[in-house]
Amino acid sequence: MKLLMTKGDAFDGGKANSYGQATLLPEETEDLWHTYNLIAKGDKLLATTFRKVQKESSTGSVDSQKVKMSLAINVGRVDFDPDGGSLRVSGTIASEHEGLRLGSHHTLELELHRKYTLAKAAWDSLYLDRIAEATEGPVATADVAALLMQQGLANLCLVSGGMSITRARLECRAPTKGNAAVQAGAKKETEKWYEQILQAVLRHVDFSVVKCVVLAGPGFVKDQWWEWAQRACERRELRAFMAARPRWVLCHASSGYKHALKEVFNSEEAAARLADTRAAAEVTALRGFFDLLAASPDRVTYGLRPVAAAAERGAIQVLLLADSLLRAQHVTRRKAYVELVDAVKALGATVHVFSSMHVSGEQLAGFSGVAAVLRFPCTIEELLGPNHNGYDDDDDDDDDGGSSSGGEDDEAGQGVPHGVVQLEEGY
After folding, report:
1. Helix 331-346 and helix 125-135: axis angle, to 10°?
2. Weakest mean pLDDT among 198-207, 213-222, 332-341, 398-407
3. Counting beta carbons within 10 angstroms of the beta carbon of residue 284, is it exposed (0 to 12), middle (13 to 18) or buried (19 or more)?
4. 332 vs 42: CA distance, rounded Å
5. Confidence of residue 47 (pLDDT cuts 50, 70, 90)
6. Which residues pair with 166 in a beta bridge?
7. If 0-12 CB within 10 Å is exposed, 13-18 middle and 19+ buried, where does residue 366 land?
8. Taking residues 123-149, what's their average pLDDT?
9. Do 278 and 143 form a contact (C-beta atoms < 8 A)?
10. Each residue's pLDDT tens digit, 77-132
11. Integer Cα distance of 128 and 250 in angstroms
12. Each residue of 383-419: pLDDT tens digit?
């Protein structure tokens, strides 16, 4: 993602929680994921769009036509489709145009290679970190690919720093039993399926970027396809595939569905090959949390209140946080997480923000979305006192911050000063 222009104290003065606006140009699908995590209800967004405008002629006739324009809206809802690479932001019109009424509803569709300007009343430290991460250099596409196979089903997934996307789902209904004619037909169908899988790999996997391709699944289906694919590529002289053969690693998984990725990332066979990839740090951190939870439960804690109490004691060594919590529409709730991150960073702790588009992020979400590895043992009674309610946070019933719907909570947008977010000239 390219950062084309910035304005405001948040950028010019480097003051967190200050006003600012940034003009950005998304170049990869993952840039849209970063954008999804940047835009919140109450922001103001300016982008190019098409809008049907009605004009009345001097004779009184009304003519309706679609016009391309730069339109600003007050953000009300954000929807993201990672598989389709589509990001739609809806809200009320905030800029004046002939034929348009202020306050009427409009939806902006953000696309690759089309710039947009985002203005916020307060850019907190995590928003600024997100901008820095997204624009720190050329954004590589997915550097890990996973081909998950079982009898009759194959899923090809691409894994990057922010997302795990299913690029192809291929099924085969070849019978496994029958007479000789049935078996001959089944063999033909199986080879056709194998060919479809190979073509999907060649089409979706960029071997100049991908560092590791994991082939996993139950039984011998993966092994049989791998042997067939190598012979087919040698026969056709597909040099890119053949040169990338050392990057392939075969391992066991319980199924060919996407949820089996968590087994793949935790397998010993794949661990060493995934060590230098973008998703490895989060996977390793989460595995360490679960290992300590099983072996020394007083060395870990989870839930906002216990983790916040551990932060006050300076006990946090590693903080694990799901990005779905940072998309919470309740401003006060998000502020609590931002303050927690700032506090533990000031004490030298490591912070991992997990993407909800990764299986590791989904696992962390099952533990309230916030967890910590502690520097020294602390029981839950020591952190919360003898009359605690366990790990449950009654006041942390999240309003589904991970939902792309943006939420319609009555509390949504609390704390956002109305009329403060302005877009200055220069888009």
Report:
1. 70
2. 398-407
3. middle
4. 14
5. very high
6. 157
7. exposed
8. 79
9. yes
10. 999 887 777 899 999 999 888 778 888 899 999 988 999 999 999 898 889 888 88
11. 39
12. 887 766 655 554 444 444 444 434 434 333 333 344 4
pLDDT tens for 294-317 read: 999 999 999 999 999 999 999 999
pLDDT at residue 263 in the model: 84
Nearest to 186 by CA among 172, 199, 169: 172
Euclidean distance between CA atoms 396 and 369, whole angstroms: 11
3-class SS letters over 107-176: EEEECCCCCEEEEEEEECHHHHHHHHHHHCCCCCCCCEEEEEEECCEEEEEEECCCEEEEEEEEECCCCC
Asked whether the beta carbons of 345 and 134 are under 8 A apart, the reply is no
For 44, 169, 209, 335, 423, the CA distances from 420, given in Å and listed in that order, are 10, 47, 43, 18, 10
Look up residue 360 and give its two tokens. Answer: 């590791």
CA of residue 151 relative to chain centroid, distance: 30
In DSSP notation, 45-75 reads EEEEEEEEEEEE-TTS-EEEEEEEEEEEEEE
**Percentages (nearest 5) of helix, strand, coil residues in the chain:** 35, 30, 35
Report the chain's mean pLDDT, rounded to a whole number: 82
The pLDDT score that the predictor gives to residue 332 is 78
Beta bridge partners of 271: none
- Locate 366 and state its tokens: 């099952």
**CB of 86 closer than 8 Å to CB of 155:** no
Neighbours of 59 (CB within 10 A): 5
Q: Tell me the sheet residues that pair with 120.
A: 20
Say how far apart CA 248 and CA 245 lie, in whole Å: 5
Residue 1 tokens read as 């993602």
Distance (Å, rounded) from C-alpha 427 to C-alpha 116? 8
Q: Are strands 44-56 and 300-302 parallel, antiparallel or unpaired?
A: unpaired
* pLDDT over 90 percentage in the chain: 41
pLDDT of residue 234: 93
